Amino acid sequence: MPARLLQRQISLLEYLTSADAIFGEGIDAPPVPHLRGFDLAPLRLEACFSHEKRMEKIIAAFPRTFELLGDDQATVVRDFVAACPSVDISRIENARQFYDFVCGRWEAAPPQPPYLRDVAACELAIANLRMRGKAQLPPPVATEPARRFRRNFDAVFLPCTYDIRSIFEGHTSEGHASEAQASETPARRDVMLAILIPPDNDQPAIFEVPASVYGLLAELGTWTDRAALGPMEGLDELISDLADHGLLEVTSEAGH
Amino acid sequence: MILRRPIPAVGIGYRSAIGDWTRDNLAHFDMLEITVDHCLSSGESVASEIFDLVGQIPMTAHGIGLSIGTDVPLDLAYLDRVAAIDERLQAPAYSEHLAFTRAPGRDLANLLPLPKTEEVAEGIIAKVRLVQSRIPVPFLLENISYLFEWPESRMTDVEFLNLICRETDAGLLLDVENLYLNAHNHGFDPHAFLNDLPAGIVKEVHVAGGVTVHRDFLARPLLADSHSHPVPDGALDLLDRVLVRHKPDAIVLERDDRLQEFDEILADVRRIRARVDAVQSENGHASALVATSD
User: Fold this and answer.
1) For residue range B229-254, what is the model confidence (pLDDT) as tens digits?
2) What is the number of CB-based contacts under 8 A between chain A and chain B?
3) What is the reported pLDDT for B213?
4) Within 13 Å, how many C-alpha atoms sit on residue A213's CB side?
5) Positions of chain B with pLDDT lower than 70, given as ranges
6) Nearest chain A CA: its distance from B41 CA (Å)
7) What is the pTM of this model?
8) How many domains does the structure of chain A reveal?
C-alpha cells in the first residue's frame, strides 16, 4: 500500500533539510524508502537553495558573529544543519534557532574569540529590536522636571563579560567592520550593555549602563513618581539623560 | 477617496527592504502586491508601513504561508488572520501557491510541488473551498516553479491546475516566469500550456527574472526563479500570449534580490507596460480604468 502523502512529504522535507542533501554527503546512497523514484540531483539543488536562503536570513542577523567565526564558519554551519533543521519560515525564529545552537556549542567548548558569545547575544537583541520596530515613546520632557517615569521595556539589558561596543562601532551599513576595527580586541571586563532604538534614530544603538544606573532602572518597572525617589543630587539630570537615550519613558503628568 | 487604476494594473510586490524607495516612487505603479505574511510576522513596523499605504495606492493580497498542499487540515486561525489583513488592505483578491512548504516538524520556507494526481487534486479542491468560505474576496491559485517531479504524477501542470480551478471557480495567478522556466527545465511547450487554459481564468500575473544554475551534480544547467534580474524577453513573450486570451486585473513584477537596482525595476515596469499597450492596441481597445473606493 502506498504511503500516505503526508508521510512522503515529511520524508521529503527531512531529506531536503539533511546534510546529505545540502552538502552532498551520501549522494549515491538511496534516500529513505518513501522517496524511491525521485531524481536526486534536482532534490539536492532544491535543498541547496533552501539552505542558502535560510543561511542568508541567519547571516543577516549575525554579520559580526559570522565574521568572527572565521575559518570555523563552515564547520559551525554544517553542525548547525545537522542538529537544527529548519522549522520556521521567519527570519527571527531562524536567528533564535542559530543562537541557541551556538550557545549550546559554546557551553561544551568556549568560543574563539572568547567574546563571541557576547557579540552573538548582542546581535540577537538587535535583530529582535529591528523586528519589533521603534517603540513610540513620548518625547522626553525638556523644559520641566519629569514627574513620573518608568523603564523603557523595549530596551534590552545584556550583561557581558567583554566590552564589545567597539565591534559594533564604525561598521558600514552592510555590517562589515573596517580593517582597523576588526583587529581591535574588546577589553575583558564585566559590563552591562543596553540595546535599544533611541528616540532620535531608526537604528539600534548600544550603550554602557553603569551598575548603579542599572540598579535604578531595574527598580523603575512601573510608573514612579519623582517624589518617591526622595532628594538625590543630580537625579533630575540623570533622568533627563536616560530619557534622551530612550532608556526611560517620562511624563510630566501626575500619577493617580 | 477614489483610486483609479488601469486594467491591467501594473505594479510590484512590496518589499520592506526598499519600502522607502517604493513610497517615494508610487507614481510609477498602478498598484502594489502585499505579501500578507509580511504583515503577520515581520514585526509591527513592517505591518504599519504597509497599512499606511491604504488609500494611497490599490493593493492586492498574496500569501506564502498557507502551505495548502501539506496533507494536514488547513490552519483556520491563519486564514482568519489573512482575512483580516485582506480587509484592512481593501484587497480585491487573495492569492496563494499551489504548493506545500512544510510538514509537521519541518518548514523549508520554499515552495515545493505536489504529486499531480486526481487524488491529490481532490484534497486541494476541498481546501480551496474552505479558503473561499473563510475569505470573502476571490481566491487565486498560483503555479509555482519546481525543480523536481513526484514520480507518481500522472497529470500535466495545466491539467492539474485546470481541474482544481474548474471544480472550485478559483482564478489563476499565472506566474509567466515560472511557466517559462518550468517549460525549459522540464521540457514542455509553454504555448501548449497557455492554449489549454480556459479563456479568462487568469486574474493576475506575476513576472520576474531568474538565473541559470550550473552545479556539478546536475546533468544540465537549470533555470531558477531567483527574482533577481530583469525579466527575460521569453517570459514577456508569454505575457503577450496571456493578454490575448485573458484580462488580468493586475500584473506584478516580483523582485527579491538585487533590490537596490532601482533602474532595472523601473525599466521592467516600463517593458511590461509596453507589452500591455502593444497587445491592447493590436486588439483595438484602450486600457480601461476601474475605480476603487476607499
Assistant:
1) 999 999 999 999 999 999 999 999 99
2) 106
3) 96
4) 22
5) 1-4, 285-294
6) 7
7) 0.88
8) 2
Q: Does A48 touch chain B (CB under 8 A)?
A: yes
CB B255 within 8 A of CB B249: no
Is residue A17 in a domain?
A: yes
Q: Do A152 and A233 have their domain in common?
A: yes
Buried residues in B139-164 as b, exposed as e (16+ CB within 10 A): bbbbbbbbbbbbeeeebebbebbbbb
Q: Which residues share a beta bridge with B289?
A: B6
- Does A220 lie in the same domain as A148? yes
Number of domains chain B is built from: 1
Say if CB B110 and CB A46 are below 8 A apart: yes
A27 Cβ under 8 Å from any chain B Cβ? yes
Residues A166, A229: one domain? yes
| Cβ distance of A89 and B109 shorter than 8 Å | yes
Is A203 an 8 Å CB contact of chain B? Answer: no
**What is the nearest CA distance from A49 to chain B, expressed in angstroms?**
8
Most A CBs within 10 A among B147, B228, B256, hence the mutation to make, goes to B147
Residue B189, chain A, CB below 8 Å: the answer is: no
Residue A123 belongs to a domain: no
Q: Check if B149 contacts A (Cβ < 8 Å).
A: yes
Q: Could you tell me if A103 and A154 lie in one domain?
A: no
Whether residue A76 is found in the same domain as residue A11: yes
B124 in contact with chain A, both atoms CB, cutoff 8 A: no
Find the CATH number of the domain harbouring B102: 3.20.20.150
pLDDT of residue B6: 83
Q: Which domain holds residue A232?
A: 135-251
Cβ-Cβ contacts under 8 Å for B138 (sequence gap 6 or more): B92, B93, B94, B170, B171, B203
Could you tell me the three cell numbers for B144? 509555482
Q: Cβ separation of B46 and A87 shorter than 8 Å?
A: no
Report residues of chain A scoring pLDDT below 50: 1, 172-181, 256
- Looking at the fold, whether A20 and A70 belong to one and the same domain comes out as yes
Cα dist from A65 to A54, A229, B69, whole Å: 16, 41, 37
How many Cα atoms within 13 Å fall on the side-chain side of residue B73?
3
Rounded Cα distance between B224 and B64, Å, is 18
CA distances from A87 to A93, A94, A190, B102 (A): 9, 8, 35, 8
